[in-house]
């Protein structure tokens, strides 16, 4: 008998364009690695290891935390399993550990698809597709969800790439964030408890400066946008290269995470920069919650590159 090695993240789908190379995976449909001229743009995880810290994963049908795993929609209360039991939360939706299918693929492009069938606590069927496209301006990611059921459903989307410093820790990097307002969270459960302007605080990175040992695990909103409606996060590595991630106007929130709670060998090796369509606990609070009618779809686009 011949033994076959099964990678923890399943099938690996490599796409290339010039000096760019990215790998998208079957398990979770996420971005495992992306580099330009051999320089990592996002912090990768090894093919032989389980995805840690949601590296590169699409987060649906909600990103971030849901308090007590409980929400009410159209007057009905629902309960989903707690996937962060130590904090009493459900986190990052249902699709991180499910197999996705590559439904379209060429040298520079792959589309990953997953169907979410009704679940106890989320009885709403969804089709989710995430397109990864390399081009002259980097990697563009387009996520679309369609309500294939016969009633309205709640929805939110996020994704969890970590911007790479190129080498070493992010402490030596320069950082620029677009967020003028920080979503305050409690220390125990990391659930929203208000908002605060970043001006005059340690979280004011509207003008770029050295990150140092600042610890961040917050959503930022009230985003500064360019004329095209994009909001940018920029991380300058010790090598002088700048990783730039942008989000479109469907994302009013970007979660920034310095990775301090990852395993010691992985901590602060990348900057979690997460496009989000809603606030943390959006299913519970309604803050940024998307309502999808039967047959309706919603699309979010973001991108990342090296300059």
From TrEMBL:
Region: Disordered, residue numbers: 270-307
Domain of life: Bacteria
GO biological process, one term: glucose metabolic process
Residues annotated as signal peptide: none
Biased composition (Polar residues): 296-307
GO molecular function, one term: carbohydrate binding
Full protein name: Aldose epimerase
């Amino acid at each position: 008998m011949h033994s076959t090695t099964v990678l923890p993240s399943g099938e690996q789908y490599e796409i290339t364009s010039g000096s760019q190379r990215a790998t998208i995976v079957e398990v979770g449909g996420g971005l495992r690695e992306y580099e330009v001229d051999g320089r990592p743009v996002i912090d990768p995880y090894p093919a032989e290891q389980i995805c840690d810290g949601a590296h590169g994963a699409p987060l649906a049908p909600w990103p971030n935390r849901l308090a007590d795993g409980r929400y009410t929609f159209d007057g009905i209360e629902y309960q989903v399993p707690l996937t962060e039991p130590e904090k009493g939360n459900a986190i990052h939706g249902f699709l991180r550990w499910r197999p996705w299918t590559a439904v379209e693929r060429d040298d520079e492009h792959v589309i990953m698809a997953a169907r979410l069938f009704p679940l106890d606590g989320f009885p709403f069927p969804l089709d989710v597709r995430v397109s990864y496209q390399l081009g002259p301006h980097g990697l563009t990611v387009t996520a679309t969800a369609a309500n294939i059921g016969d009633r309205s459903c709640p929805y939110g989307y996020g994704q969890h790439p970590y911007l790479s410093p190129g080498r070493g820790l992010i402490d030596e990097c320069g950082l620029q964030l677009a967020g003028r307002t920080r979503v305050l969270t409690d220390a125990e459960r990391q659930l929203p408890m208000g908002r605060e302007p970043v001006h005059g605080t340690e979280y004011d990175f509207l003008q770029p400066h050295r990150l140092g040992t600042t610890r961040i695990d917050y959503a930022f909103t009230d985003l500064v946008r360019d004329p095209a409606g994009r909001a940018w996060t920029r991380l300058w590595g010790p090598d002088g290269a700048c990783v730039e991630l942008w989000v479109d106007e469907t994302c009013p929130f970007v979660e920034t995470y310095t990775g301090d709670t990852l395993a010691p060998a992985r901590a602060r090796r990348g900057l979690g920069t997460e496009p989000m369509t809603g606030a943390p606990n959006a299913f519970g609070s309604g803050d940024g919650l998307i309502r999808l009618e039967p047959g309706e779809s919603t699309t979010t686009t973001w991108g990342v590159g090296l300059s």
